[in-house]
Amino acid sequence: MVRTLLVVLGKKQKQLIKINKKTMGQYIGQPDFGTSAVEITASDTIDLTTKLNSSALFIGSGGDVTVILGGIPGASGGFPASSQAVTFKNLSNGCFLPVIVDYVLATGTTAADIVAVK
Question: Longest C-alpha distance within the chain, in Å?
Answer without folding.
Answer: 63
